[in-house]
């Protein structure tokens, strides 16, 4: 029987790596995003004007049957401190991109995730502490961290034996990051395909994991470590 995964944010840099990796492993891959991923088995396209409830209905209504894994890698980045003119707009954007997508993924897990399945959300390494120069981003990612703790607890609504965690990358090696930071030390950046392979290991049970944990992803000299917190 073919295994299935939902990739929320399947047309972003990390999402594309995940879709490609699982397709090569002969999984059925459902991509959810505003743009289609041509590698995916199925695409569910979102509308930018959707409310949170409308987005959830659009996603839930398009998926039939049960899936083995749900990975939410939707998100973005915007800076700004308390004095920034963009504080409110950026904070609202960060909340929609990270928290709304994570909430929909969690609700989807309650409806479609198989017993013993995997739900992985995306937090952020810096959001474990204060983020004064990117307040909205830090608040949104910290909320995702709290959501993971809630989902891993009893009576959270997802299957009782499901595994849930969040990945906390420092810097992913993406075209956008390379364009924005051309003089950075790329040997300390994490390959998106490296993360995708780790997710595959968790989804198949080949790599053990502890539900409810935040997983720091750190790369040094092109070698990546994963630390559960």
TrEMBL record:
<comment type="subunit">
    <text>Homodimer.</text>
</comment>
<keyword id="KW-0560">Oxidoreductase</keyword>
<protein>
    <recommendedName>
        <fullName>Dihydropteridine reductase</fullName>
        <ecNumber>1.5.1.34</ecNumber>
    </recommendedName>
</protein>
<dbReference type="InterPro" id="IPR036291">
    <property type="entry name" value="NAD(P)-bd_dom_sf"/>
</dbReference>
<dbReference type="GO" id="GO:0005737">
    <property type="term" value="C:cytoplasm"/>
</dbReference>
<keyword id="KW-0521">NADP</keyword>
<keyword id="KW-0783">Tetrahydrobiopterin biosynthesis</keyword>
<dbReference type="InterPro" id="IPR002347">
    <property type="entry name" value="SDR_fam"/>
</dbReference>
<dbReference type="InterPro" id="IPR020904">
    <property type="entry name" value="Sc_DH/Rdtase_CS"/>
</dbReference>
<dbReference type="Pfam" id="PF00106">
    <property type="entry name" value="adh_short"/>
</dbReference>
<dbReference type="GO" id="GO:0006729">
    <property type="term" value="P:tetrahydrobiopterin biosynthetic process"/>
</dbReference>
<dbReference type="GO" id="GO:0006559">
    <property type="term" value="P:L-phenylalanine catabolic process"/>
</dbReference>
<dbReference type="GO" id="GO:0070402">
    <property type="term" value="F:NADPH binding"/>
</dbReference>
<comment type="similarity">
    <text>Belongs to the short-chain dehydrogenases/reductases (SDR) family.</text>
</comment>
<dbReference type="GO" id="GO:0070404">
    <property type="term" value="F:NADH binding"/>
</dbReference>
<dbReference type="GO" id="GO:0004155">
    <property type="term" value="F:6,7-dihydropteridine reductase activity"/>
</dbReference>
